[in-house]
Amino acid sequence: MEGATEGKWALMDYNDVVVHIFLERVRSFYDLEGLWAEAPQTEVADKIRQKVGAKADKPAPKKKGS
What we know:
Elements: E1 9-13, E2 18-22, H1 24-30, H2 32-35, H3 44-57
Antiparallel strand pairs: 1-2
């Protein structure tokens, strides 16, 4: 993890995935979306919502003694 101590940009490297978290003005300055415009994109948020929705549809397990 890099950059978090300054509070403007944090980079987290998970080998297959790199996460950048910016303040809005810093994000605009670096324009990573523009630099990587030709790269394939993956909609991760949709996959997370599907998992959360699937869990919410399941009834909660009953506690012993209930």
